[in-house]
Design a protein that fits this description.
The chain is built from ten helices and eleven strands. With 322 residues, the protein is of the alpha/beta class. Strand 1 and strand 2 form a beta hairpin.
């Protein structure tokens, strides 16, 4: 197979040192009471691929542990199951389960080792093999959860979300069709949320690949959601273009004013000390309302109320509608 970068470009991955260490920050927008959620770390491994698949499972603290809607979450480059805790905690506090999958080929271990070989490690994480492995991590994690905890999740109410490289993983699982590659779509996923999704670099006819997505989708970005390193820049307009190319009949777009690419991680302060917690709060509420609305059939009033609460933060809002 020809080595190529399907997703985020190599130089974009090099920017990971600036934004992806989400565990180093504090989830300043985590306003859910500690009693509203609980979590458990599970150290799974896929024997077929000989690949560890660690996960963190967030659950409502006092809800009956059965028949829950589920959001599977995929982290950005250099992240882990511990990241994006503000989102997992909030989803669980709203009665959903959240399964945060760690991708060992592109996780926080990238930051360990010789600093002079960091670029090589980032380049390896951008290759086709790791992009495919991430999508297969999601499939295995869902299989394993259903094996170990049968009845915990309502199989008809499963959604997926991801940030940055994780958003690209989400694109693949949601149905993006990469020419010449076996499909990685998981039909159990019924809705998808793409947060700060970079363009599909290296993919022939990316618009056609995105047009194959048919699930209800939500796209989230910010006007200052910029990836910038020497020789490579990806701007927020590319996130909007990706939204426009997605084939979903039901799709929505939220563009926050200001912010940054890493404002959606657990890092505090990035994007501004005032804007950061506000954008996090609006994002976690938006994801919960979108997913619950899709499953309950009341997305329009839920999201209208969300927009009313947070419209002062938005540069653009396209409500999901057919």
């Amino acid at each position: 197979m020809k080595r190529r970068h399907w997703l985020v470009g190599t130089l974009a991955l090099g920017a990971g040192a600036a934004w992806a260490r989400e565990e180093l920050g504090t989830a300043s927008a985590s306003s859910a009471p500690p009693t509203a959620w609980r979590w458990q770390d599970l150290d799974w491994a896929d024997p077929a691929r000989q690949r560890p698949v660690p996960v963190r499972l967030y659950l409502p603290a006092d809800a009956a542990p059965e028949g829950l809607p589920l959001v599977v979450f995929s982290h950005g480059i250099g992240g882990s199951r511990r990241g994006y805790s503000y989102l997992g905690q909030h989803l669980a506090s709203q009665g959903l389960a959240a399964l945060h999958v760690q991708h060992v080929g592109s996780d926080r271990a990238l930051w360990s080792g010789n600093v002079f070989s960091l670029v090589g490690r980032l380049q390896a994480a951008a290759q086709t093999a790791e992009a495919r492995a991430r999508a297969l991590d999601v499939r295995f994690a869902l299989d394993q959860l259903q094996r170990e905890r049968p009845g915990l999740v309502d199989a008809s109410r499963i959604a997926m979300a991801g940030h940055s490289y994780g958003a690209n993983t989400c694109l693949l699982v949601a149905g993006a069709a990469i020419p010449g590659e076996a499909p990685l779509t998981d039909p159990r996923i019924r809705a998808a949320v793409f947060i700060s999704a970079p363009p599909l670099h290296g993919v022939p006819e990316p618009e056609q690949a995105l047009a194959a997505i048919r699930l209800p989708t939500l796209h989230v970005t910010a006007t200052d959601d910029v990836i910038r390193v020497p020789g490579y820049t990806s701007v927020a307009a590319e996130r909007v273009a990706l939204f426009e190319a997605t084939g979903s009949a039901v799709k929505g777009l939220a563009v926050f004013e200001g912010g940054s690419h890493s404002v959606f991680t657990d890092r505090a302060g990035t994007g501004g000390p005032v804007a950061n917690p506000r954008i996090k709060r609006a994002t976690k509420e938006l994801v919960a309302d979108f997913v619950q609305g899709q499953f309950a059939g009341d997305a329009a009033p839920r999201l209208a109320h969300w927009h009313q609460r947070h419209q002062g933060l938005l540069a653009r809002w396209v409500p999901p509608s057919a």
